[in-house]
Amino acid sequence: MRHFISVNQLSESEIFSIMKTAEYYQNNNFQFNRQLFAANLFFEPSTRTKNSFTVAEKKLGLEILDFHSEASSTQKGETLYDTVKTFESIGADLVVIRHEADAWIEELDSKVNVPIINAGAGKKEHPTQCLLDLLTIYQEYNRFKGLKVVIAGDIKHSRVAHSNAMVLKKMGATVYLSAAPGYVDETMDFPYISMDEAAETCDVVMLLRIQHERHDGQLTGTENYLANYGLTKEREKRMRPHAIILHPAPVNRGVEIDSDLVECERSRIFKQMSNGVYIRMAIISKILNEWGIRNETAFEKRK
Ligand code: CP
């Protein structure tokens, strides 16, 4: 794997292997035994993904180079390509990128000689979020085959929906979408169901926030959003006994989900965030190993 850009790059067995590595890192300390540098280039706001990569990198022993887009030379007109080449030139061993463009990788792909991990590309993909969602589902059910998963919310503008629908189908789950009229993505070949049907029939209810930042001021269908399209307390009562709630967060409490449900018994929202650290450790070690940096050192086990 040269860069990790899309979940489509991974076979079913590679996904299981990454989840296994993540669970290993959950229980054991591992570090690379040579000095390595990571650059986290976030051109869009992030709380979870950026800090989760930071924790993952620090746990693996990487040093993190300082970058804040608003205080960087991108403000003087430097391109993404030249920014990445700069980090490559000064010795970064890994570059993590979040950018508002859907296709930023096309500008970089074969021209840079440093591994890149996609931490969110426009409306297109969020592959590490997808893998942590898979791990959270797998830890619940120990399978994907036969599960009914609904992805509900602003499907049209969501990179999480695009990554997750493709991969959950590949792993054997039956995927449904649920969205208000303005948020339907006609290009996605999955059946749409109502939130009532989703709550009553699905094993996993994955909610998404309205992606205001990608609407170009064209907001539609937001009136009575929670009652019409969100997970209300009344709908939660009708969920299957074992069914779980996921959300990549940030959550807009009271919009796509009733605030009281964010931390309810069925919710795995904060577990998703914890799993994100270990999934990112697994992806970082996989890509660095595949670039020839193989010498990890085991530290004493935590338990
Ligand atoms: N889930 C997610 O990508 O959250 P952040 O935008 O806070 O990174």
From TrEMBL:
The keyword Signal does not apply. Pathway: Pyrimidine metabolism; UMP biosynthesis via de novo pathway; (S)-dihydroorotate from bicarbonate: step 2/3. Residues 145-285 form the Aspartate/ornithine carbamoyltransferase Asp/Orn-binding domain. GO terms for cellular component: cytosol. Carbamoyl phosphate binds at R48, T49, R98, H126, Q129, A249, P250. Keywords: Pyrimidine biosynthesis, Transferase. Its EC number is 2.1.3.2. L-aspartate binds at K76, R159, R209. InterPro entries: Asp/Orn_carbamoyltranf_P-bd, Asp/Orn_carbamoylTrfase, Asp/Orn_carbamoylTrfase_sf, Asp_carbamoyltransf, Asp_carbamoyltransf_Asp/Orn-bd. Pfam families: OTCace, OTCace_N. It catalyses: carbamoyl phosphate + L-aspartate = N-carbamoyl-L-aspartate + phosphate + H(+). GO terms for biological process: 'de novo' pyrimidine nucleobase biosynthetic process; 'de novo' UMP biosynthetic process; amino acid metabolic process. It is an enzyme of class 2 (transferase). Residues 2-139 form the Aspartate/ornithine carbamoyltransferase carbamoyl-P binding domain. GO terms for molecular function: amino acid binding; aspartate carbamoyltransferase activity. Heterododecamer (2C3:3R2) of six catalytic PyrB chains organized as two trimers (C3), and six regulatory PyrI chains organized as three dimers (R2). Catalyzes the condensation of carbamoyl phosphate and aspartate to form carbamoyl aspartate and inorganic phosphate, the committed step in the de novo pyrimidine nucleotide biosynthesis pathway. Belongs to the aspartate/ornithine carbamoyltransferase superfamily. ATCase family. HAMAP family: Asp_carb_tr. This is Aspartate carbamoyltransferase.
